[in-house]
Amino acid sequence: MNASPVPEGEPVLRVTVALGEPSVVTVSGDADLDGQSALREAVARALAHHPHLVFDLAGVSFADSTFLTVLATARLAALEQAGSVSLLAVSAPVQRLLDLTGAAVLFPAVAPGRPEGS
């Protein structure tokens, strides 16, 4: 299967994982259906390393319900391992999604510079 190039200027989801205690998944660009599989893989890798996970969301320019589903699924998987999911530097689009859906109460915020949430 050939991958189509992304048109110049089109927002793309970028995901990086910093394994640690907790692991930090940094997300930027458009967090929508197109990037869901890469995001799920990053979450699985991070949770396989440590049950506590922090999402750094400062660079997210757009987020939809598929992104919220990934966050909720990550939270459930972390809780099954006696872990947690926290959010760091939540961008305005993500905050709007969390507020509109009532999901903000499920994800504690982490102070910048303290990804461990302590």
What brief labels describe this structure?
3 helices; 118 residues; alpha/beta; 5 strands; 5-stranded mixed β-sheet
Can you describe this structure?
There is one protein chain. With 118 residues, the chain is an alpha/beta fold. The chain contains 3 helices and 5 strands; from the N terminus they run ββαβαβαβ. The protein has helices spanning 36-49, 65-80, 92-101, and strands at residues 14-18, 23-31, 52-63, 84-88, 109-110. The chain has a 5-stranded mixed sheet with strand order 1-2-3-4-5. The longest helix is centred in the middle third of the chain and has 16 residues, at 65-80. The protein starts with 13 loop residues before the first strand and ends in an 8-residue tail after the last strand. Residues 1-7 have low confidence and may be disordered.
Shape: globular
Report, as a whole number of angstroms, the end-to-end distance: 46 Å
Strand fraction equals: 25-35%
Give the averaged pLDDT, no decimals. 89
Give the biggest sheet. 5 strands, mixed
Structural class: alpha/beta
Provide the low-confidence segments as ranges.
1-7
Counting DSSP H or I runs of 4 or more residues, the number of helices is: 3
* Cross-sheet strand order for the largest sheet: 1-2-3-4-5
How big is the Rg? 14 Å
Helix content: 25-40%
- Spell out the helices and strands N to C: EEHEHEHE
Total beta strands:
5
What can be said about this structure in brief?
The chain has 118 residues and is of the alpha/beta class. The protein has three helices and five strands, in the order E-E-H-E-H-E-H-E.
